[in-house]
Design brief:
251 residues; alpha+beta; Thrombin, subunit H; 2 domains; 6-stranded antiparallel β-barrel; 5-stranded antiparallel β-sheet; 14 strands; 24% helix; 39% strand; N_methyl_site
């Protein structure tokens, strides 16, 4: 006698289905957490890399500029959050008495100064850069007794008689408008803004803190600027860095 077909059919019980659904749910949650954590690690790493690249750009930008400034012309105003300095337009040495309105000079890399630029000899502080400077008028190539041009030698005409001299017989030409790098609130948030005359540009955004300590030279130490800055991303990832920039200090 054969058994009914229904007796050979078996299926999942309700308890088995609940166990399977529970196990699959636990596995799904675990996998989702792993994927979410991996994505978050990637995003955090990418954001940190971006901040490091931005900090490196800021450091290189400021270091390049500060290495080509008039000696002792840099200052930092903590109340305004501004680093101010005078970039060199042209520099050289003078060969004759400097107490005149004409300066006989030797310039190895002749740039094109413009009317309104200033000339200073022996600047010892940011204030002396402006107080002891005289107006630049024009420069002409120096000639010998036979009228031949002298290589690298120029006669610089000044708007007034110069009253300073330098032990190293050095002079510096600079634009009367200093460069200032300040932390300001802009449409892009807290940013580091560079201003030079009417020219304005943003160096960095998301700057949460910014300061600079100008260390004056001594017999045992060169002049340097200690720059401290913190950059913060939109995801609250922060990067703080400190960098020392040495700059010329022998006037």
């Amino acid at each position: 006698m054969s058994l009914p077909i229904a007796q050979y059919q078996r299926g999942f019980t309700l308890i088995e289905l609940i166990l399977v659904i529970t196990i699959l749910g636990v596995i799904s949650v675990s996998v989702a957490q792993v994927i979410s954590l991996s994505a978050q690690i990637y995003i955090t790493g990418a954001e940190r890399t971006r901040l490091v690249s931005e900090a490196r750009f800021i450091i290189l930008r400021l270091e390049k500029e500060l290495r080509n400034i008039v000696p002792n012309s840099v200052s930092f105003d903590a109340s305004l959050g501004c680093l101010t300095y005078y970039p060199i337009v042209m520099s050289g040495t003078y060969t004759e008495d400097p107490f005149d309105n004409e300066l006989h000079s030797v310039v190895f890399e002749m740039k094109e100064p413009t009317a309104g630029d200033k000339l200073v000899i022996y600047p010892t502080s940011p204030q002396s850069v402006t107080d002891n400077s005289v107006d630049y008028i024009e420069s002409t190539v120096a000639t010998d007794d036979e009228g031949n041009n002298l290589e690298h030698q120029y006669i610089i005409e000044l708007g007034a008689v110069n009253t300073q001299s330098s032990p190293g017989k050095r002079f510096f030409l600079f634009n009367e408008n200093p460069v200032s790098v300040c932390k300001e609130t802009t449409s892009q948030g807290e940013a580091l803004v560079r201003r030079e005359g009417t020219s304005t540009g943003i160096i960095a955004t998301n700057v949460s803190s910014w300061s600079a300590d100008v260390i004056t030279p001594s017999l045992r130490q060169n002049a340097l600027v200690d720059i401290d800055m913190t950059l913060t991303s939109s995801s609250d990832e922060s990067l703080a860095f400190s960098h020392e920039v040495h700059f010329p200090n022998v006037p």
